[in-house]
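Late entry, flavin-adenine dinucleotide complex.
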Amino acid sequence: MNKILTRNQLSENVVKLTIEAPVIAKKRKAGQFIILRTHKKRSERIPLTIADADALKGTITLVFQVVGKSTAELAAFQVGDSINDLVGPLGKATHIENFGNVVCIGGGIGIAPMHPIAQALKGAGNNVTSILGARTKGLLVMEEEVNKASDKVIIVTDDGSYGEQGFVTNALEKIINDGQKVDVVVAIGPAIMMKMVCKVTEPHKIKTVVSLNTIMVDGTGMCGCCRVSVDGTTQFVCVDGPEFDGHKVDFDGMMKRQSTYVDLEKQSYDIYKSHGCGNRCTCK
Amino acid sequence: MTLTPAERMKIPRKNMKEQPPEIRVKNFKEVPYGYTEDEAVEEATRCIGCKVPQCVSGCPVEIDIPKFIQQIADRDFDAAIETVKKTNLLPAVCGRVCPQETQCEIKCILGKKHTPVAIGNLERFIADYERKKKEIAIPKIKAKTGHKVAVVGAGPAGLTVAGDLTKMGHSVTVFEALHRLGGVLMYGIPEFRLPKEILESEATFLEKLGVEFKVNSVIGMQYSLDELFEEGYETIFLGTGAGLPYFMNIPGENLNGVYSANEYLTRSNLMGAYDFPNNDTPIASSKNVAVVGGGNVAMDSARTAKRLGAENVYIVYRRSEEEMPARKAEIHHAKEEGIQFNILMNPTRLIGDDSSWVTKMECLKMELGEPDNSGRRRPVPIKGSEFQIDVDCAVIAIGNGPNPLVPHNTPDLETNKWGNITADSETQKTSKEGVFAGGDIVLGAATVILAMGEGRRAARAMDEYLKTKKW
Ligand SMILES: Cc1cc2nc3c(=O)[nH]c(=O)nc-3n(C[C@H](O)[C@H](O)[C@H](O)COP(=O)(O)OP(=O)(O)OC[C@H]3O[C@@H](n4cnc5c(N)ncnc54)[C@H](O)[C@@H]3O)c2cc1C
Ligand SMILES: Cc1cc2nc3c(=O)[nH]c(=O)nc-3n(C[C@H](O)[C@H](O)[C@H](O)COP(=O)(O)OP(=O)(O)OC[C@H]3O[C@@H](n4cnc5c(N)ncnc54)[C@H](O)[C@@H]3O)c2cc1C
Ligand code: SF4
Ligand code: SF4
Ligand code: FES
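Prediction complete; structure with ligand written out below:
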């Protein structure tokens, strides 16, 4: 059982939790994730990136967006509650070295997994420019944390309510067109955003690392549910990834697989919402 | 009344009563009901108690078969279970899933002229008898030795090592990656063949013995093997299994609705997707399901698909039925349940619709040619024989490779060209001092009883190592 120590609502749909998990806190590296189940009997296993960790206090931080039943249940947890199962760290850690100039791009909830990578890259001596994108100002999260982990931060919103108006790709193109040297790009966000970022960097031959969020079950390489085609070969995101060379990823195939259970998941979420136990559903 | 051997042999083999096929395809409950006491005694009476019992030589853990069967015949059930448990820690499991027809029963002398004694059914009966009594005897444990042992993986191999070493007085901690114990017995083999309640009772038994379980612990990620040594564990057993699903590498394999058998079965068994939305994990509900393969894994997937509501379920297998590696009983059950066998066929590609959901499987007809290395006749494709079947779900059950997590994160651990950990066949010692391995991670996808046999050997050698510290 892993106890929740703090809970912050970052935006309408985004919640940040710090959780007791001493072994994971000590061991985890940037780019890795955990899998959790909220309740004992019927819960599914959902993957979430370790957004931050404190090895001394023995805590990890999760930042997640409520998109369906499991994330809604997790959001309903309060300080002092415990998560039933938590396993990690999983996945390969980000390859960190001093590349020179790196641009870290986080779109929407992707800012949370992008943050520890920016932190590690800066720690390794890189000059880090971060581009944060959100649909609107109220949905932008973790600006302060990213500020600390970057030399420069550019903010873009779809509706122009904060920072520049536009998409993260516009900001990236501007940097490249201005003739600034970019050695590596790290992009984490919705699949479509990562695909578009790769389209921008490919002609310039800028190495682009993406972190994939396929559907998962076990997270240990046992089921193949998370498979994705990379450079024409099948890779398992949970053990071979989650990070890959973005120029080699079949994003279209991945997006289609992500939609496998849309209808069933909606059904599950609708039932959950209709239970009327407020936001504290403990119906087992 | 004592019967002569000739009279005993004439008693017909007692089959277990079963749920009728049309009922059982609508539920996940176990198919056979098991013997009543009288039925068991009657079946036990058939055994002629051979002086040199061939059946024992067919059993990888050499259960004293004539002895326990005689004890059943004498209605001394408590003694019978004790006999079985001397060499087999999980009789309720083995009685149900061992391929008896190629192990103990094929050797039974009665099989020469009649049908062999139903050794597996009797083993299952006696284990169930004990479990139903609800007072499973806790064996004597030797005085604590103070030695600490780590076991990685809670499948049959790991559980055997844990049980044996605990009985010898060592302190054992089992690290399991998933949130439940049992390995394939939990996530792979379905409830209708192996009720999960049995695993729960086995785990409770081991806990009572004093085994410590740490679920949600992926070794290689959470701790490396060297870190386990630093934590004070003096020796480590790796029983991480053959959990890596193979795909066919044909076009369309990443379409929606295409599953590895591991994923399909894990969703249904471990995560309870058959009871969605009461359980949160979804699984495709399909009309036409094709399962590729001919082993137990394929049969389990096909029969699960049927129970999930599919109208047509096909087994697509490239050899003939004779070559199918599945247990005969499961092939028989599958046929009774209306699973359609498409033999001598090999899939060449999967075709999807606009939303990327699988709609057709294209296959090629095969014929049998010359025997290959395994002695089975090699299937050869018939040119131009392609045809398509309508499917909205495909399950690939063509085999599993060794789980690579631990070897990848342990450079000084030797593996063979298929990625199996190399271990000494006598002692299960690996190339890394203090580390032993056994079960599917060494053998490749094998059987429950062989995994347990390796566990037993490893436990003996680990005990020796703890005492002498000689490698
Ligand atoms: C390695 C990894 C790291 C992740 N890290 C984070 C994180 O730090 N913060 C965060 O908010 N989310 C993260 N995700 C995504 C997160 O796992 C899903 O949002 C979550 O599983 C949804 O569960 P649910 O039951 O609430 O919603 P569901 O009911 O399962 O899904 C609701 C909707 O989200 C879509 N969806 C489901 N699973 C995923 C997925 N894995 N990726 C994208 N869309 C999905 C569904 O198609 C559906 O439309 C990560 C995913 C992976 C694989
Ligand atoms: C669907 C199916 C049906 C089968 N039917 C039969 C049958 O009828 N009869 C029969 O005899 N055999 C059958 N088998 C084969 C049999 O189940 C296996 O041979 C046996 O389970 C192997 O046991 P094991 O202990 O070596 O490994 P497993 O049972 O595979 O257990 C390994 C365990 O290790 C865990 N693990 C893996 N990596 C790590 C790690 N890094 N850290 C911690 N834990 C880890 C896994 O999660 C798993 O729980 C079947 C197999 C399948 C898949
Ligand atoms: S353990 Fe398996 S092989 Fe041995 S007697 Fe029992 S059923 Fe037969
Ligand atoms: S070979 Fe058959 S008849 Fe002989 S002891 Fe074994 S089970 Fe009994
Ligand atoms: S989630 Fe099962 S193999 Fe990756």
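Residues 101-211 of chain A form a domain with the Rossmann fold fold (CATH 3.40.50.80). Will revisit in the morning.
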